[in-house]
């Protein structure tokens, strides 16, 4: 079996796969260098590189008095865009960022207070058995466990998060396209190369070959996600020594409303894990399509369509596509729930469950679909 | 060992391709002979478990192949008419893959590949990419893959297509050597491929089994009906009306002809010993293109 899986992987690793992979990593490097890396004194990252000790003194939970002291900076232009000399800019950038963080911390506390008041009012009205009450209580419980937003240097993680999860979810699109075009010939390629007769006539020509091909597709998906996530992490954070890895996730503006108590590294690993599950499920679905359609081109086009389609559907519906999880950060950004018979169910576990069910169904249907080849071999 | 086909039928849509085919095979070489399009490949695909028949059974030692499943396919060696391969694999990698499909270990596979490549004279070419193989080399690679697992049942669909005359002789010798303890069924529309090596010949036409017997038995059915004559060219149309002209050769001013007919087709005709090719022509004389085939040989 190990040999068969190795051969199936070898069949998949054709030139176009390496080209897409090289393009993905090349594009990622280009995007970060041209867009995210600091140029001159234009970001908190640049400040950190210039004066790390000064920045480190401020890192941590916000001191409200200090934030108040710097509040006058909010009336000034954005410090990163100013024409001031670098030394003045550094001070301005630090103070502006610090006071913005203080403002975010206040907003956070305000949100909690308002939710507590709303819950109290609902309890007075006896609405404890309503979905709205349960949903708000759940949200409050989750938010209650979070740290207040603090002052951290997390711009490298911000760009990483935007690249992996912001619209259009570049990372997810690359992974999706790699799987769509790399795995389309999983079964269909045997028809094209006229190998189906030899495979079907062999003792491994039924369940064993389907299992080997499915395992190869899963390995392909795992390697694709790992390579793309790892290369993106290295490109985004290595030049800055992974500064900010232990900062809370709600320190970033796109994830300000996250209900999850995670630091940057934990969130990235979770994102990777979610994308991995999505990619594995998507890989199995592509395998099923490939066995069903027996055409690499049709399979690639439908799979690529699924990669693109989820970008244009709202989250509520796109969870039904296995490609949704490739853009995994979307699940961590905010508190969103389904009303499941009056109880709130978070998008993340629901999307994971849907994706797993789709993957398992596709895996179960693949042998049935492949066995139908005996009715009309090429 | 006995391989038995019982009332095999197959349809593609509304077209009936195989009609009630039954025969049984025991160790030895069998030639499946018939013109193109008579269902030989379909029958072989059914025997190789590549195609599910719409009716009938294939039994190995009395057990249905569908019930035997992997066990049935483990004793098979199959060379399809159109052998596919992966162009980016070397010949050796391709054979290792087939060996893995057949459940051989890596060391068993390597040993067998070397042994068979030596026999079919492909040892020096195994590390070339399959995409660079000539038609003959691909065919030899196909023969190796079919033999990798020491199959007890070897099904070869048009195995000699693409082989040069010397390779054909080597191939026939190889088949003769390995056939003592296994069933070898090879299909062809070229009579000389099986004339000397087949223990029995199965004649197929229009999806039906027409005859089964040893080459001598089948040829014996035409005893006294095959004639050789030297005639002026103008008499050829008359001969074609009387019998089946199976060979015409220009000899000086006249023609040397071979004819199948119930009586002497002309005064000069001399009876000759029938061959398997005569049998083939006798059965398929009405097949479109049969005269063209006869004249070209």
Question: Which properties best describe this structure?
Answer:
heterodimer, A: 378 residues, mainly alpha, 2 domains, two-stranded antiparallel sheet, two-stranded antiparallel ribbon, 17 helices, flat, B: 297 residues, alpha/beta, six-stranded mixed sheet, four-stranded antiparallel sheet, 12 helices, 14 strands, disordered C terminus
Number of domains of chain A: 2
Given the C-alpha coordinates, what overall shape of chain A results? flat
Summarize model confidence as the mean pLDDT of chain A. Answer: 86
Taking pLDDT < 50 over at least 5 consecutive residues as the criterion, the unreliable ranges of chain B are 287-297
Instruction: Give the C-alpha Rg of chain A.
Output: 25 Å
Indicate the proportion of strand residues of chain A: under 5%
What string, H for helix and E for strand, traces the elements of chain A in order? Answer: HHHHEHHHEHHHHHHHHHEEH
Distance linking N and C termini of chain B: 38 Å
The total count of helices of chain A amounts to 17
Mean pLDDT of chain B: 84
Count of helix runs of chain B: 12
Distance between the termini of chain A: 25 Å
What class would the helix/strand composition of chain B place it in? Answer: alpha/beta
Beta-strand portion of chain B reads 25-35%
Largest sheet of chain B: 6 strands, mixed
The helical percent of chain A reads 55-70%
- The run of helices and strands of chain B is EEEHEEHHEHHHEHEHEEHEHEEEHH
Which pair has the most extensive contact?
A: A-B, 26 and 32 residues
The beta-strand count of chain B equals 14
What form of chain B results from the Cα inertia axes? globular
Q: Poorly predicted ranges of chain A (pLDDT <50, ≥5 residues)?
A: none
């Amino acid at each position: 079996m190990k040999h068969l899986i190795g051969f199936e992987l070898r069949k998949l690793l054709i030139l176009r796969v390496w080209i897409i992979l090289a393009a993905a990593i090349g594009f990622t490097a280009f995007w970060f260098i041209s867009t995210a890396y600091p140029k001159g004194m234009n970001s908190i990252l640049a400040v950190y590189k210039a004066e790390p000790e000064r920045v480190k003194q401020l890192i941590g939970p916000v001191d409200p008095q200090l934030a108040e002291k710097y509040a006058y900076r909010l009336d000034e232009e954005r410090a990163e865009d100013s024409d001031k000399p670098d030394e003045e800019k550094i001070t301005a950038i630090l103070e502006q960022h610090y006071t913005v963080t203080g403002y975010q911390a206040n907003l956070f506390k305000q949100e909690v207070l308002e939710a507590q008041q709303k819950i109290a009012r609902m309890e007075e009205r006896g609405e404890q058995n309503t979905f709205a009450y349960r949903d708000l209580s759940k949200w409050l419980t989750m938010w209650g466990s979070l740290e207040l937003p603090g002052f951290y240097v997390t711009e490298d993680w911000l760009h990483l998060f935007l690249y992996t999860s912001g619209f259009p979810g570049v990372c997810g699109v690359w992974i999706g396209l790699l799987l769509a075009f790399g795995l389309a010939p999983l079964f269909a390629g045997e028809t094209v190369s006229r190998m189906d007769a030899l495979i079907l006539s062999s003792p491994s020509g039924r369940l064993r070959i389907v299992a080997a091909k499915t395992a190869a597709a899963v390995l392909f998906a795992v390697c694709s996600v790992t390579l793309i996530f790892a290369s993106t992490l290295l490109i985004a954070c290595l030049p800055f020594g992974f500064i900010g890895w232990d900062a809370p996730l709600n320190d970033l503006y796109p994830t300000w409303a996250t209900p999850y108590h995670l630091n940057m590294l934990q969130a990235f690993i979770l994102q990777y894990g979610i994308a991995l599950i999505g990619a594995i499920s998507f890989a199995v679905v592509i395998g099923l399509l490939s066995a069903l359609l027996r055409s690499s081109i049709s399979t690639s086009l439908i799979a690529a369509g699924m990669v693109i389609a989820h970008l244009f559907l709202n989250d509520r519906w796109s969870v039904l596509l296995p490609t949704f999880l490739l853009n995994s950060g979307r699940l961590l950004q905010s508190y969103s729930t389904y009303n499941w018979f009056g109880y709130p169910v978070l998008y993340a576990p629901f999307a994971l469950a849907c994706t797993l069910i789709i993957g398992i169904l596709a895996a179960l249907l693949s042998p049935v679909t492949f066995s139908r080849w005996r009715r009309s071999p090429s | 060992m006995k391989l038995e086909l019982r009332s095999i039928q197959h349809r593609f849509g509304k077209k009936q391709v195989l009609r009630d085919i039954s025969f049984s095979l025991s160790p030895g070489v069998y030639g499946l002979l018939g013109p193109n399009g008579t269902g030989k490949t379909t029958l072989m695909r059914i025997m190789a478990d590549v195609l599910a028949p719409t009716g009938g059974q294939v039994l190995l030692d009395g057990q249905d192949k569908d019930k035997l499943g992997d066990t049935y396919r483990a004793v098979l060696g199959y060379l399809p008419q159109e052998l596919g391969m992966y162009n980016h694999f070397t010949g050796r990698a391709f054979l290792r893959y087939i060996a893995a499909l057949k459940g051989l270990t890596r060391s068993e596979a390597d040993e067998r590949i070397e042994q068979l490549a030596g026999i079919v004279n492909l040892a020096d070419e195994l590390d070339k990419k399959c995409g660079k193989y000539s038609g003959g080399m691909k065919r030899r690679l196909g023969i190796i893959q079919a033999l990798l697992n020491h199959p007890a049942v070897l099904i070869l669909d048009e195995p000699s297509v693409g082989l040069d005359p010397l390779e054909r002789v080597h191939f026939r010798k190889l088949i003769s050597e390995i056939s003592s303890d296994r069933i070898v069924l090879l299909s062809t529309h070229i009579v000389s491929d099986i004339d000397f090596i087949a223990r029995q010949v199965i004649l197929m036409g229009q999806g039906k089994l027409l005859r089964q017997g040893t080459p001598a038995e089948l040829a014996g059915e035409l005893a006294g009906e095959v004639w050789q004559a030297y005639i002026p060219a103008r008499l050829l149309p008359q001969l074609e009306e009387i019998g089946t002209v199976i060979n015409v050769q220009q000899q000086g001013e006249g023609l040397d002809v071979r004819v199948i007919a119930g009586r002497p087709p002309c005064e000069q005709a001399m009876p000759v010993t029938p061959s398997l090719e005569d049998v083939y022509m006798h059965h398929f004389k009405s097949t479109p293109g049969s005269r063209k085939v006869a004249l070209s040989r």
